[in-house]
Structure formats: structure tokens, C-alpha cells
Amino acid sequence: WPCSSCVHWGMQGVRPLQVVWEQPVWSAQDQHRPGCDDWCRQLTVSIDGKPIYHFVGTSTFSEYTVIHVGCLAKINPEAPLDKVCVLSCGISTGLGASINVAKPPKGSTEAVFGLGAVGLAAAEGARIAGASRIIGIDLNTSRFEEAKKFGCTEFVNPKDHDKPIQEVLAEMTNGGVDRSVECTGNINAMIQAFESVHDGWGVAVLVGVPHMDAEFKTKPMNFLNERTLKGTFFGNFKPRTDIPNVVELYLKKELVLEKFIN
């Protein structure tokens, strides 16, 4: 970064003029880097005067891309790329959201909001971590049968109830779930996921990316009652060091990636 005031004071261990790499999801929606106080512009590629935004340092929907070395992970050459490629984004995001961030204790209850690929990976992560009840929440009932393969033990469709889903879950779990992971990006689902966890020890993890102008609104007492709200990007995995380890889980058949591919 070119200016000495770019590095935010909150980036511990980083000093001005050091080389760092931080690529937020927001770069797909605007040009602000959250670690920069001076609104420095890094997105310099344009076509016909229109900026070409970069998504989290990889932009993998393009046929060709030039990426920073920090976005490359060296993995076991025995791993089939047509299978482990799914670990480069969504599957690792869901797995890590449960394993690394929510960290459900063995025998606990975790609710997963949204049963797309990321949500199914979160359910799989909860299963690996040892959660005994994994409650899948989705508006599409057809997803429930498939979700059983990923560890879901119970299912709730909010459309089947005449009360808020957080109240439904509180009744099902004697006060609230131990952990919840939100994988939709819908701001209402995010609020519901937080308000679904138990007072005193409940932890909610936000994974989905909402619109940048969306606002999270809840009662302050939810925090005073010791509920915890967390957010995560890429499941808190460090790509270069952690992805090779996740690949090894697949090669040891402790993680079945074929379930995610159709």
C-alpha cells in the first residue's frame, strides 16, 4: 500500500509500508478496503472507463486470472482437482464456520439457516465437531431429505409456523440452540439466527453476505444476556496453511466431498 496512513490501527502486528494482503468481500460491491482509513483505491483495472471489481483476490468466475501468491495453496498431488476444487470457497466456508468459529461442544445443538452448499457444509462441520442435534432451517422443503446425508437430524420450514422461527427453536430446545450458523445472506435470517441461541452461552455465526446497506437490528438485552454474535470469512481458515490439511481429511475419507457434487 502506498501511503503510511493506510493501515488501520486495528490490524495488529502490521506496520505502515509493510506488504500485506487483505481482500474483503465488499470489493465486489464498492471500492473501500476496511483496513484503510484514507479510502485508498486499489481496484485499478477498467474497461471503457468502468472499473472491474475483484472478488476476494481470486475472481474465479473468469476464464483466466492473475492472483497474488497468497491466494495459492500447495496441496497433496494425489488429490483429484475435480473434487478438491470445491474447497476453494463455499465448502470450506461452511465447514470452518462450524468447526473453527461456532465450535459446538460434543452433544450440543446447532441450527443451520439455509441448506444450500454452504449450509450443508456447516451441517457437516457440526457433525464432525460432535453436535448431537443439527437442525436445518430452509424455506425449500425438498432440501431436507438431502440434508440428512450431511448430518441434519431435524428440519424446520419457517412457512409452516405462525410464529417467528426463533420462538419455534426455543420451544424445540428448551430455551434456544447452543450454536447457530447463518448461510443465506438474508438480513432477517441473520437476526433470527442470533435470537435463536440460548442465553448465557449461545453463539451465532454469520456467514452469508448481505447487501452492504443492510442493518442488523436486535434488542441490546440479547447481548447483556451473554449471547455471542460472530462473523466469519472463509470459515476462519488460513488458505495457504489450512486448505492442505482439509484436503488430507478428504484423502483419509474423513470428509466426503462427493456429496457436494452433482
TrEMBL record:
GO MF, one example: alcohol dehydrogenase (NAD+) activity
Keyword Cytoplasm: yes
Subcellular location: Cytoplasm
Species classification: Eukaryota, Viridiplantae, Streptophyta, Embryophyta, Tracheophyta
Top EC class, one word: oxidoreductase
Protein family membership: Belongs to the zinc-containing alcohol dehydrogenase family.
Name this protein carries in UniProt: Alcohol dehydrogenase 1
Catalytic activity: a primary alcohol + NAD(+) = an aldehyde + NADH + H(+); a secondary alcohol + NAD(+) = a ketone + NADH + H(+)
Annotated keywords: Cytoplasm, Metal-binding, NAD, Oxidoreductase, Zinc
Cofactor(s) for this UniProt protein: Zn(2+)
GO cellular component annotations of the record: cytosol
Assembly: Homodimer.
Biological process terms in GO annotation: formaldehyde catabolic process
Domain Alcohol dehydrogenase-like C-terminal: 117-250
Pfam family, one: ADH_zinc_N
Entry EC no(s): 1.1.1.1
Keyword Signal: no
